[in-house]
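Severity: low
Component: inverse-folding endpoint
Summary: output formatting inconsistent between runs
Steps to reproduce: submit the following structure tokens with default settings.
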């Protein structure tokens, strides 16, 4: 197959590796942390995880460990949305297993957790994985959003693994998939099974992070890719000086992606969903903020600009949150009947009759396209899929109306021409940045070490990520200690808490310090394409978010 020159060059890239991971597995041993439990675990979790809760976070250090050389058969799945670097995790696991014992084998179950239930797998040999080194995408084995959470599914997993002689499962996934990995590990330990389960933190959204996990893989590449595109649009806006660009960015409930892209590109406006929720800002208030910036810039002769909109904004606006909550409940309770309503008009009328007065009013004020999007299929949790709601169109619609009214009253005499964009899928399978290539390979090697040391119910961690890769500290953290009890469908469920943007955190504060100037002046920054070769400050720098969170000083 003909591959591109960059594909070929990236394929030959050797990830920079933490020095401890350059040692043979039999020369690496465990150092358990003195602090057995994380302060984030909520009451009730210990009782649900009697077998795995009391494990201690661990780091790998030099030391003799001949037992690590046992041959093992390990399985891996990719779970949920794509994130750049997933292939390097798999390659790292395989290299780590083979470094200990060449008879070890790695099996990839296809298309996510569903592949285990369908017993659909392939052996991942060195030859099989070779073309995937340092590539984006999850096409090596595919991914899926099926959940592995019921006891029946757990039993099926055991049956498949026992028949195939597989002794460990690696789940590469986000908060949900890792929650289920923790539950499976506990279930297996409880039944006396020796099958191990280890998780790996994946998601471009950047919302799987805590005391132990500094960042999920994929965030770095995705935000660099979007920032390049945003920078290009900013330069176009600054050249043509005639359009306001409204750009929506993926990220689900968390605005980490939008915030990082704002720090990279300095747009005129960036909305942060967490701030909107915290301050209970209504849709009208948000529109008013945008309008006043447009008017202010117009008075300076600048009828152009850039607005970043996180996809989670729609759910953070209080009245929309109430409406979406009521719609989710209605659609879950009467899913079958709702499915029989074939026209949008019938669906809208049916929900309107059942919504509270307040929610029904909000629904009726929305453009019909947004109403349609709010009634689309729910995700497997019964939640609206925010990636399918064109919040940027809603904002443009409302901003245009307000500006027209102002013009009619003689309060605005500028021009407002808008263009909308949505960046999400563009960044999820990009060639991983050097950071993600290095980080993911290190996560894979770390995962192999956790398995070789018989640990279960852990997530692989690599810490000290703002330092040079050679100084990174590989280890693992117990999944159960990251859980909280959350009320879902009337029941308490253990879940790994999503990390949202903290308005008291360093990245948000850096943004807050500069946003007024960015709004009125034109100080766009053009980050350019992700670079793989050249000076280290160009090629190996990680996100501004991570650097600020690690206490580094960054010129914004
Ligand atoms: P994960 O949480 O599974 O990593 O997926 C992230 C994400 O890209 C979100 O940003 C986005 O809302 C969602 O997936 C889109 O889902 P889908 O891939 O099913 O369209």
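Observed output (run 2 of 3):
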């Amino acid at each position: 197959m003909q591959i591109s020159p960059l594909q070929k060059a990236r394929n030959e890239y050797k990830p920079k590796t933490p020095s401890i991971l350059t040692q043979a597995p039999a020369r690496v041993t465990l150092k358990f942390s003195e602090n057995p439990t994380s302060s984030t675990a909520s009451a009730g979790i210990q009782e649900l995880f009697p077998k795995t809760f009391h494990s201690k976070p661990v780091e790998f250090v030099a030391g003799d460990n001949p037992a690590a050389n046992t041959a093992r058969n390990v399985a891996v799945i990719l779970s949920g949305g794509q994130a750049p670097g997933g292939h390097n995790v798999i390659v790292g696991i395989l290299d780590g297993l083979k470094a200990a014992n060449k008879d070890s084998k790695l099996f990839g179950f296809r298309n996510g957790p569903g592949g285990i239930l369908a017993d659909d797998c392939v052996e991942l040999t060195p030859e099989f994985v070779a073309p995937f080194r340092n590539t984006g995408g999850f096409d090596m084995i595919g991914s899926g959003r099926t959940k592995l959470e019921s006891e029946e599914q757990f039993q099926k997993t055991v049956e498949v693994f026992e028949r195939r002689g597989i002794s460990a499962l690696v789940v590469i996934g986000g908060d949900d998939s890792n929650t289920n990995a923790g539950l499976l590990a506990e279930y297996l330990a409880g039944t006396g099974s020796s099958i191990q389960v280890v998780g790996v933190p994946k998601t471009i959204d950047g919302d799987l992070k805590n005391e132990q996990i500094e960042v999920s893989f994929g965030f770095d590449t995705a935000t660099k890719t979007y920032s390049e595109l945003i920078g290009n649009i900013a330069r176009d806006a600054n050249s043509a000086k005639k359009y306001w660009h409204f750009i929506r960015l993926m990220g689900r409930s968390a605005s980490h992606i939008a915030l990082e892209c704002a720090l990279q590109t300095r747009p005129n406006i960036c909305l942060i969903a967490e701030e909107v929720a915290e301050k209970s800002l209504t849709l009208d208030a948000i529109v008013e903020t945008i309008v006043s910036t447009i008017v202010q810039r117009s008075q300076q002769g600048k009828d152009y600009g850039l607005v970043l909109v996180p996809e989670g904004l729609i759910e953070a606006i209080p009245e929309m949150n109430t409406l979406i909550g009521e719609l989710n409940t209605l659609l879950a309770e009467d899913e079958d009947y709702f499915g029989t309503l074939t026209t949008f008009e019938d669906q809208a009328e049916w929900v309107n009759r059942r919504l509270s007065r307040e929610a029904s009013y909000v629904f009726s004020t929305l453009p019909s396209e947004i109403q349609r999007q709010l009634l689309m299929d729910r995700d497997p949790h019964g939640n609206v899929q925010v990636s399918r709601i064109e919040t940027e169109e809603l904002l443009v619609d409302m901003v245009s109306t307000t500006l027209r009214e102002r013009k009619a009253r003689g309060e605005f005499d500028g021009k407002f021409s808008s263009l909308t964009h949505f960046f999400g899928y563009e960044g999820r399978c990009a060639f991983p940045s050097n950071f993600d290539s290095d980080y993911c390979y290190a996560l894979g090697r770390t995962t192999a070490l956790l398995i070789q040391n018989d640990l279960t119910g852990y997530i692989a961690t690599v810490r000290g990520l703002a330092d040079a890769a050679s100084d990174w500290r590989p280890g693992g953290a117990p999944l159960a200690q990251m859980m909280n009890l959350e009320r879902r469908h009337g029941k308490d469920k253990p879940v790994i808490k999503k990390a949202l943007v903290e308005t008291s955190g360093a990245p948000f504060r850096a943004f807050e310090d500069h946003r007024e100037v960015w709004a009125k002046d034109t100080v766009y920054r053009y980050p350019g394409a992700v670079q793989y070769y050249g000076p280290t400050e160009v090629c190996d720098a990680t996100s501004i978010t991570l650097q600020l969170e690690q206490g580094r000083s960054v010129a914004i």
